[in-house]
Description:
Chains A, B: Substrate binds at residue 105. Chains A, B: This is tRNA pseudouridine synthase A. The structure is a homodimer. By secondary structure, chain A is an alpha+beta fold. Chain A has 2 domains: 2-98, Pseudouridine synthase I, catalytic domain, N-terminal subdomain (Alpha-Beta Plaits); 102-254, Pseudouridine synthase I, catalytic domain, C-terminal subdomain (Alpha-Beta Plaits, 2-Layer Sandwich), CATH 3.30.70.660. The first copy, chain A, has 8 helices and 9 strands. The two termini of chain A are 19 Å apart. The relative contact order of chain A is 0.18. The A-B interface holds A 5-7, 52, 54, 72-73, 76, 81-87, 113-118, 120, 122, 176-177, 272 and B 5-7, 52, 54, 72-73, 76, 81-87, 113-118, 120, 122, 176-177, 272.
Amino acid sequence: MAKLRYRGGAYRGWQAQPGAPNIQGAVMAALKNLTGDQGPLAAPSRTDAGVHAKGQLACFDLTSSISLNQLFKGLNNELPSDIAVVDLVEVPPDFQVRQNEGKRYIYRIWTAIYSDPFFENTHWWVPGQFDLDKMLHAAPQYLGSHDFCAFRDRCCQGIDTNKSVTRFDITSRQIEAGREIEVTIEGKAFLHKQIRIMVGTLVDIARNRRPANFLDQALNAKAYAAQIGSESVRTGNYRGHAGQTAPAHGLTLDQVFLTPDPFETRELEDWRG
Amino acid sequence: MAKLRYRGGAYRGWQAQPGAPNIQGAVMAALKNLTGDQGPLAAPSRTDAGVHAKGQLACFDLTSSISLNQLFKGLNNELPSDIAVVDLVEVPPDFQVRQNEGKRYIYRIWTAIYSDPFFENTHWWVPGQFDLDKMLHAAPQYLGSHDFCAFRDRCCQGIDTNKSVTRFDITSRQIEAGREIEVTIEGKAFLHKQIRIMVGTLVDIARNRRPANFLDQALNAKAYAAQIGSESVRTGNYRGHAGQTAPAHGLTLDQVFLTPDPFETRELEDWRG
């Protein structure tokens, strides 16, 4: 199993798809060039187009015999410079990385009257008025279990829209006349684009584009839609009851939680020498 | 006077030169498009090709009448996304930004067995063996006044090679199995490529490519060259007595010191609204 880090800007996301650069395809090509093997990769999160990863995981089988050190150096040599293998560990053949304990995502915002060149590819630039207090006040409502039917892409095929958010922290720091905001979100599983719609909805509230009670309505979209006679009740599509989708380039898959974590529990290996 | 921030990767440095993208030229073009003026820009540091800036300064005269707010928004609108104006202040017509109190540079190193995609354009990746203690031990020798004749580019035209280094700090933090190192350097003035040669020489020592007393010899290059009968005595070129030049993309011009600093001493202005 490999731990991968990538800047997602040049890719159409994790998922292998013909005719579009994708992370999985790039890793499979590197594996094939190096070992001849290119079994499918199992990953716990299919990051979307433009989304970054600090600790994406990818499981694969190898038939060729190659040391971890050779595999590490060889893969990093084959991969483009915006994708790196940062760690490797052997796992049992029946290891199911999709059965993880959850994930941590970090969403980064830069709110100021200028777009910072060093934040350009990692932060969502939000110019103009921004009421951080409104964002801080509304955010805790996300914690716990909710029907997130309003917080998923219209194309999302998920059947169960009930998800649980176990952490939703906002930290910020003043930089010159602007503010960098980091939103840390953890949960076992998320709907397609759920994180970005959660963040986008909060930003709509911070910018006074939505009233303070908008988040409560969005988290209870089914009841609210019935109450106001929305046509969402007929179509079953509640997306319109939440706010905008935050852009992909602000989002990073920070960590995947495994219990036990094979990277932590492995015996000391000296292959990194 | 504008405070500029830029990622230098796409530019041949600050200095305007025909046929090569450069920071000064990009800012002058933006000024001209916006105001019709494009007087030459006075800057305290001509950053080299590939070098970044967090707080470069640029002074210019305007004949057109335009508010600071319009100028700020207009310039940022005209400039490419890797260059930004982060602040503006009016200064007297005779203001001499070249007569500053000194500059702060930060050089960033990432030493690990993998190249981190998020550090790719801002850190010098140094793989393999790295003895940080040797670097920390040697570094304080740079402090104070020295003849830095060995620490300048062969093309450097500077007449006085005596320079004073007032700060040379190294901080580092462990990240996974690697280490991020930040070197902060301050001084009134530096020779061409002096900072990068200072850092490169330390890294040579940390990698055991040079002995521990190498830095002492390089800082006393004239005496050392005479002692060993080096031909540098005849040519007057002592570059060979210091170590390698660290790559440009790890270097950032962090701040220029002005006393008084017009950005600090200005009366409260509301043009940023």
